[in-house]
C-alpha cells in the first residue's frame, strides 16, 4: 500500500509560510532560521519556493532525491526545489501550459545554482535517447561558457553572474527537449576596465592566462603573468577553491560540445587577448602649437601586438586614439583628443569589444541550441537575473537592475493575484478583494515615456549644449518632485530640505522593497555608452572574422548620423519584451536568500535575512496568499488525512469525498466562516483551523496508535498463550507416552526373565530324561554289537578254516596231476623241435622280406638304381639276384614300349656309344642330340631335286660338310649324302655330284680324340674311287655321320668292317702325297670351332680350342 505523505508530516517550523501563526516579520525570520538550522533550506509560500543558500553541499540533490520527487504532488513531500521543477515540468508536459521559472535574489543568494538545479532536474526526468541527450548536453554545457565570460568574483560571490540571463527551453509534445534560446541582459561591462577592491575581472581572462598552453599563449602574444596587464587588478587574482586552469579546460570542452568550431574558439580568444593588450596601451600628452593638448601612444609595442591580433592597420587605430571626427549635416569636423579623452576612448573600446563579444557568444550558442523541428513547442523559461541591489553607492547599474526587479515584482503580483483569482473562479468560491501594495506606480515613475526617469535621462543625453549629471538631476527635481516615491534634497518638496540623510547630487526612490539612494554621477555617460565613430570604423576595417560582425556600425557604407539608442532605452525595451514574454507563461517563483555576508555555512544573520525578506516582498507575498483562504487542499487527501476525527468517516467513507469532508467538518463543529467548499478543494481561511485539525489528528493518531497497540498486544499475547497451551498438550502427550513405554518395557523384560527361567528348568528336566534313555539305548546297542561280533568272528574263523582246507586239496591235486602229465609226455617233446623252429623262423623272415620288398619296390625308370637293402647277410645272394632280375625285367618292359624307328635310333646311339664313348671328347655333347639324318631336307628342297634323283637309293644321311683343301687347310661346303651302298659329295649350291663312292671302297675313318668335327675318309688303295685321294672333311654332326657310315658298312655282308681310327695324328692320302693331320690343343683364337692350317707340305695342323 502506498503511504500517503504530506508536507505537514515531520515539519520543522512550518514548511509553508502561509501556515505561520501569528504572521509577523519576527516569526517569519524565526521560522526561516529554525529550518535553516535544521538543514531545511527550502520553505514554501504557497507555490513559491524560498531558497536559503547553504554555502555547502547538502545531500539533497542526489539522483535518489530526483526519483523521490518525480511525479509527486507539490505538497506531498517536504519543500524542495525539485518539487517546483517537477510541478512546472509536469504541467508543461501534461497540461500544455508554457512555464517560466523566475529566480530572484541578491548576488550570491544562489540564483544561478538554483537555475542549474532546475535544469538538471528537468534533464534527469525528461525523455532519453541519443538525440535528446545531445540536446540536453548542449543546453547544460552552455552554462560553463557563459559563466566564464559573464561571471566574476565579487565581494559577495566568488562566481557572481554579471549579466541577466533568460533561457527558454523548448520541448516537444512528449516533453523531450528540442533546443533553447538564451537572452542576455546588461552585462556589467565596466568591470572589464576597472574592478572594485577585492574583486576580479571576468573569469575568462584568468582562465586563459593560467590554463592555455604555452603555444596558444605565444600565438595570442600573451604572458602568463597577471601583473603584466593593467586591466587585471592584482589584489585578488586568485580565488581559493577555484582552479582557473581546470576551468579553462572545462570551458574549451563545453565550447566544443556546444558546437563552436576550432577557428571560432581561436577568434574568441584573440579578442580576449586584444582586450588585455588594449588595457596596456598608455598615452602621453603632447602640446600643440594651437594650444590644444594632444595625446600620443607611449609604448607602441602593445598597440602593435593588438593590431596584429585583430588584423588592424596600426596607423588607423593610432589615429583613432588621437582624433575624433564629428559628422553633422554633411560636415566633418576633426578634433584632437587629450590624454584623458584618449584613455576614455580606449576604455570605451575595451568595454564595447568585450560586451559585444559576449553578445556574439550568446548569439552563437543560440544558433547551436536552436530547436530544429518546426512543430509547435512547449516552452519552459528560466530567468536568472540579478536581484535587488542596495549598496552604499548606487549608480546607473543599480538603478537599471532595481527597475528590472520592480517590473518582476509587478508581474509577480499580477500573476499571483491572477492565479489566485482564477483558482477561486475555478473552484466556484466567492472572490473577496485583497488589499495589497501595487508597485505599478514606481514602475511608472521610472519608465513613463513622457516624464519617467529613463525618458528624462535620454532627453538630457540628446539635448544639445552642455549636459552633466547635475543638469539631469535638476531636471528630475523639477519633474518628479511631486511623486510620492521620489525624494531629492533639491526637490521642490520642502519636506526633504531638512533631510540630512539625503546628500547632494543624489536622488532616492522608494522601491517596493525599500528606499535606495542613487548618486547621479556617471548616469549620463553610462546611458550614452559612447564609442567614437573613428574607433568603430577602425574596428570594422579589421581583418578578423569576428570584428566586422560585432562592429557593424563601423561600416562606412552605412554611416548613420543618428545617435545609437541609449543604454537605458535598450534595457527598457528588452525588459519590456521579457515581461510580455513572461506574462504569457505560467510563473513559478524561486526566491533566493543568502543567510550571511561571509559566504559561510551555518551562519544566519537575522538583519541580513530580514532585509532580503523585506525587499523581496516575501511578507507581502504571504499576505496576498492568505488574503482569502490561507490553505487549500483537494478533498481526497483532506479526507484521507483527517477521516479519523469523525466516527462516520472512520475507518472508511463510502460516499463521495466532498460529502465526507462536509460530514467531517460538521462533526468537528468548525465555524462555517473558517472554510469554504470549492469544486475539488476545501479552502481554509485561517492556518489556525488547519493546525486545530492537525492537533486533533495528532491526538487522534495517538489514540489510534494506543488502540492499535492494545489490540496488537492482546492479539500477540493471545497468540502466545495459545501457542503455549498447544505446546503444553503436545509435551504432556509425549511425556505420557514415554512413561508408559518405559513401564511396559520393564514388565516385558521381567516376564521374559521369568519365562526363560521356567523354560530352562523344563528343558533341563526333559534333557535329563532324554539323556538317560539315550544312554540305555547305547548300552543295548553296544552289548548286541559285541555279541554279534563274537558270533560273526566265530563263523568266519570256521569258514576260513574250511576254505583253506579246500584250497590245499586243489593245489596238491594240481601238483600231483602236473607231475604225472610231465612224466607221461616228456618223451614226446624236444626231438624235432629245433629243426621246426628254425624252418618256421626262416619262413617267417622270408615272408617278412618279401612283404617288405613288395612295399618298397623301386620305380619303373631304368635309370633308377635304388633297391631295398637285405635284412640278413644270408640273403645277400638272393637279394642281388632279385635285383638283377628286376632290372632286366624293367629294361625289357621299357624296351617293349619302343617302335621300330625309335629302336633303330637307339641302336644307332648305342653304336655311337660303342665307337666313341670315352674315346673322343666330342662324344658327350652328341648324346642328347637326336640323329636326324636328313639335315638339308633333300626331298623337299627343289635345289637338290636333281641330286636326289641322281642318287636313286634311299638317303640315310644328308648334311653339309666342309671339305678341307689340302693346299691351305680351308674348307669348302659340300653336301654329304649317305645311302645304303654309297656316300656322295655334291656341290652345296648346285647340287652337282662331285664324287660318289661306293661304301666298299671306304676302308677306314680317322678322327681325333678331341672336341672337333674333322674326319678323314680313307679309301681302298687302288680302287677307282681312290684316284683322287682320301677326303678330309669336317662336320658338326661328326658322331652321327661316322656312326651311320659304320652301320652302313657293317650291314653289307660281303665286306669287312670299316675301321674307326681314333688318334690325334693320322695320315691322309691326297692324290700322291700323304699328309699328316695333327690335332693340337690351341687357344680359342677362332672362337669355339677348330681351325685347320697348313704347316708344310706334309703337315696340316688342326688347332682345337681347349675345353
Ligand atoms: N544549493 C546550494 N548548495 C550549495 N551551495 C550553494 C547552493 N546555492 C548556492 N551555493 C553557493 O553559493 C555560491 C553563490 O551562488 P550563485 O548561484 O552563484 O549566486 P547568485 O547567482 O545568486 O549570485 C555558489 O558558488 C555556491 O558556492
Ligand atoms: Mg548568478
Give a structural overview:
With 1107 residues, this protein is an alpha+beta fold. Strand 6 and strand 7 form a beta hairpin. The longest helix is centred in the last third of the chain and has 139 residues, at 687-825. The radius of gyration is 80 Å and the shape is elongated. It starts with 24 loop residues before the first helix and ends with a strand. The model has no long low-confidence stretch (mean pLDDT 87). The structure holds adenosine-5'-diphosphate and magnesium ion.
Task: List its salient traits.
1107 residues, binds adenosine-5'-diphosphate, 31 strands, 32 helices, alpha+beta
- Strand portion: 15-25%
Rg, Cα atoms, Å: 80 Å
Spans where pLDDT lies below 50 across 5 or more residues: none
Distance between the termini: 138 Å
The overall strand count is 31
Largest sheet: 8 strands, mixed
Instruction: Record the strand order, biggest sheet.
Output: 23-22-21-20-26-25-24-27
Structural class comes to alpha+beta
Question: What's the helix count?
Answer: 32
Cofactors, ions and other ligands in the entry: adenosine-5'-diphosphate, magnesium ion
Share of helix, binned? 40-55%
Mean pLDDT: 87
Overall shape: it is elongated
Amino acid at each position: 500500500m502506498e503511504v500517503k505523505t504530506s508536507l505537514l508530516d515531520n515539519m520543522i517550523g512550518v514548511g509553508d509560510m502561509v501556515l505561520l501563526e501569528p504572521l509577523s516579520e519576527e516569526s517569519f525570520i524565526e521560522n526561516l532560521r529554525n529550518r535553516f538550522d535544521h538543514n531545511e533550506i527550502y520553505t514554501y509560500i504557497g507555490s513559491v519556493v524560498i531558497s536559503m543558500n547553504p554555502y555547502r553541499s547538502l545531500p539533497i540533490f542526489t539522483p535518489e532525491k530526483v526519483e523521490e520527487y518525480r511525479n509527486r504532488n507539490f505538497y506531498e513531500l517536504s519543500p524542495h526545489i525539485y518539487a517546483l521543477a517537477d510541478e512546472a515540468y509536469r504541467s508543461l508536459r501534461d497540461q500544455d501550459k508554457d512555464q517560466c521559472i523566475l529566480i530572484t535574489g541578491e548576488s550570491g543568494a544562489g540564483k544561478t545554482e538554483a537555475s542549474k538545479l532546475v535544469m538538471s532536474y528537468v534533464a534527469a526526468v525528461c525523455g532519453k535517447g541519443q538525440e535528446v541527450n545531445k540536446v540536453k548536453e548542449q543546453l547544460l554545457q552552455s552554462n560553463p561558457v557563459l559563466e566564464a565570460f559573464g561571471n566574476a568574483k565579487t565581494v559577495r560571490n566568488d562566481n557572481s553572474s554579471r549579466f541577466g540571463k533568460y533561457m527558454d527551453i523548448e520541448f516537444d509534445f512528449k516533453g523531450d527537449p528540442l533546443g533553447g534560446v538564451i537572452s542576455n541582459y546588461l552585462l556589467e561591462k565596466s568591470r572589464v576596465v576597472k574592478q572594485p577592491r577585492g574583486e576580479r575581472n571576468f573569469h575568462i581572462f584568468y582562465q586563459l592566462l593560467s590554463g592555455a598552453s604555452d603555444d596558444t599563449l605565444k600565438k595570442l602574444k600573451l604572458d602568463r603573468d597577471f601583473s603584466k596587464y593593467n586591466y587585471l587588478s592584482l589584489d585578488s587574482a586568485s580565488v581559493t577553491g577555484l582552479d582557473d586552469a581546470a576551468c579553462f579546460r572545462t570551458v574549451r570542452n563545453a565550447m566544443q560540445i556546444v558546437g563552436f568550431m576550432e577557428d571560432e574558439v581561436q577568434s574568441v580568444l584573440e579578442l580576449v587577448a586584444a582586450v588585455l593588450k588594449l588595457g596596456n596601451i598608455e598615452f602621453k600628452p603632447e602640446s600643440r602649437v594651437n594650444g590644444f593638448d594632444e595625446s600620443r601612444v607611449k609604448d607602441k609595442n602593445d598597440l602593435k601586438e593588438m593590431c596584429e591580433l585583430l588584423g588592424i592597420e596600426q596607423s588607423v587605430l593610432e589615429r583613432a586614439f588621437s582624433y575624433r571626427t564629428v559628422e553633422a549635416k554633411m560636415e566633418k569636423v576633426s578634433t584632437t583628443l587629450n590624454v584623458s579623452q584618449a584613455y576614455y576612448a580606449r576604455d570605451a573600446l575595451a568595454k564595447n569589444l568585450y560586451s559585444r563579444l559576449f553578445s556574439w557568444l550568446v548569439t552563437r550558442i543560440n544558433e547551436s541550441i536552436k530547436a530544429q523541428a518546426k512543430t509547435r513547442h512547449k516552452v519552459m523559461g528560466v530567468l536568472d537575473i540579478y536581484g535587488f541591489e542596495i549598496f552604499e553607492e548606487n549608480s546607473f547599474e543599480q538603478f537599471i537592475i532595481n527597475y528590472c526587479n520592480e517590473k518582476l515584482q509587478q508581474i509577480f503580483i499580477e500573476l499571483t493575484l491572477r492565479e489566485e483569482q482564477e483558482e477561486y473562479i475555478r473552484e466556484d468560491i466567492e472572490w473577496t478583494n485583497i488589499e495589497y501594495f501595487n508597485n505599478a506606480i514606481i514602475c511608472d515613475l521610472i519608465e513613463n515615456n513622457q516624464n519617467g526617469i529613463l525618458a528624462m535621462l535620454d532627453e538630457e543625453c540628446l539635448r544639445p549644449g552642455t549636459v552633466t549629471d547635475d543638469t539631469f538631476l535638476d531636471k528630475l527635481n523639477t519633474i518628479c518632485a511631486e511623486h510620492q516615491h521620489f525624494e531629492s534634497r533639491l526637490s521642490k518638496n520642502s519636506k526633504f530640505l531638512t533631510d540630512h540623510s539625503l546628500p547632494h547630487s543624489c536622488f532616492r526612490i522608494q522601491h517596493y522593497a525599500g528606499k535606495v539612494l542613487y548618486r547621479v554621477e556617471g548616469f549620463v555617460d553610462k546611458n550614452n555608452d559612447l564609442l567614437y565613430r573613428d574607433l568603430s570604423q577602425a574596428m570594422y576595417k579589421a581583418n578578423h572574422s569576428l570584428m566586422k560582425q560585432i562592429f557593424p556600425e563601423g561600416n562606412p557604407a552605412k554611416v548613420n548620423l543618428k545617435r545609437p539608442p541609449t543604454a537605458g532605452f535598450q534595457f527598457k525595451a528588452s525588459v519590456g519584451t521579457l515581461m510580455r514574454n513572461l506574462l504569457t507563461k505560467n510563473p513559478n517563483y524561486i526566491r533566493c536568500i543568502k543567510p550571511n555576508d561571509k559566504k559561510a555555512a551555518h551562519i544566519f544573520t537575522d538583519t541580513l535575512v530580514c532585509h532580503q525578506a523585506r525587499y523581496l516582498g516575501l511578507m507581502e507575498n504571504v499576505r496576498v496568499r492568505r488574503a482569502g483562504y490561507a490553505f487549500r487542499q483537494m478533498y481526497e487527501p483532506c479526507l484521507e488525512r483527517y477521516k479519523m476525527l469523525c466516527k462516520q468517516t472512520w475507518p472508511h467513507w463510502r460516499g463521495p469525498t466532498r460529502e465526507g469532508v462536509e460530514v467531517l467538518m460538521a462533526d468537528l463543529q468548525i465555524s462555517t466562516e473558517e472554510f469554504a467548499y470549492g469544486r475539488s478543494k476545501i479552502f481554509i481561511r485561517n492556518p489556525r483551523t488547519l493546525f486545530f485539525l492537525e492537533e486533533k489528528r495528532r491526538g487522534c493518531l495517538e489514540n489510534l496508535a494506543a488502540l492499535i497497540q492494545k489490540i496488537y498486544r492482546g492479539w500477540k499475547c493471545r497468540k502466545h498463550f495459545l501457542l503455549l497451551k498447544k505446546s503444553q498438550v503436545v509435551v504432556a502427550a509425549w511425556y505420557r507416552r514415554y512413561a508408559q513405554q518405559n513401564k511396559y518395557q520393564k514388565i516385558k523384560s521381567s516376564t521374559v526373565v521369568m519365562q526363560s527361567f521356567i523354560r530352562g528348568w523344563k528343558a533341563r528336566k526333559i534333557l535329563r530324561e532324554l539323556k538317560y534313555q539315550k544312554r540305555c539305548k547305547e548300552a543295548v546297542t553296544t552289548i548286541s554289537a559285541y555279541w554279534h561280533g563274537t558270533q560273526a568272528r566265530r563263523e568266519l574263523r570256521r569258514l576260513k578254516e574250511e576254505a583253506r582246507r579246500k584250497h590245499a586239496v586243489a593245489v596238491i591235486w594240481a601238483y600231483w596231476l602236473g607231475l604225472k602229465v610231465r612224466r607221461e609226455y616228456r618223451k614226446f617233446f624236444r626231438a624235432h623241435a629245433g629243426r621246426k623252429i628254425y624252418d618256421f623262423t626262416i619262413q617267417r623272415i622270408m615272408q617278412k622280406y618279401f612283404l617288405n620288398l613288395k612295399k618298397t619296390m623301386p620305380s619303373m625308370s631304368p635309370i633308377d638304381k635304388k633297391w631295398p637293402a637285405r635284412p640278413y647277410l644270408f640273403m645277400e645272394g638272393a637279394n642281388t639276384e632279385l635285383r638283377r632280375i628286376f632290372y632286366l625285367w624293367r629294361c625289357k618292359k621299357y624296351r617293349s614300349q619302343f617302335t621300330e624307328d625309335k629302336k633303330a635310333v637307339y641302336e644307332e646311339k648305342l653304336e655311337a656309344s660303342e665307337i666313341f664313348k670315352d674315346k673322343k671328347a666330342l662324344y658327350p655333347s652328341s648324346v642328347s642330340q637326336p640323329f636326324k639324318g636328313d639335315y638339308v631336307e633333300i626331298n623337299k628342297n627343289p635345289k637338290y631335286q636333281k641330286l636326289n634323283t641322281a642318287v636313286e637309293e634311299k638317303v640315310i644321311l644328308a648334311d653339309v660338310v666342309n671339305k678341307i683343301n689340302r693346299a691351305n687347310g680351308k674348307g669348302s661346303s659340300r653336301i654329304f649324302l649317305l645311302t645304303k651302298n654309297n656316300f656322295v659329295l655334291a656341290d652345296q649350291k648346285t647340287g652337282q655330284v662331285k664324287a660318289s663312292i661306293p661304301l666298299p671302297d671306304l676302308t677306314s675313318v680317322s678322327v681325333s680324340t678331341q672336341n672337333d668335327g674333322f674326319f678323314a675318309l680313307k679309301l681302298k688303295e687302288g680302287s677307282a674311287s681312290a684316284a683322287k685321294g682320301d677326303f678330309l672333311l669336317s662336320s658338326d654332326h661328326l658322331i652321327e655321320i661316322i656312326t651311320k657310315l659304320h652301320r652302313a658298312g657293317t650291314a653289307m655282308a660281303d665286306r669287312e668292317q670299316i675301321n674307326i681310327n681314333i688318334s690325334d695324328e693320322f695320315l691322309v692320302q691326297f692324290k700322291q702325297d700323304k699328309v699328316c693331320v695333327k690335332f693340337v690343343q690351341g687357344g680359342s683364337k677362332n672362337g669355339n670351332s677348330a681351325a685347320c692350317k697348313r704347316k708344310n707340305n706334309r703337315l696340316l695342323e688342326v688347332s682345337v680350342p681347349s675345353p
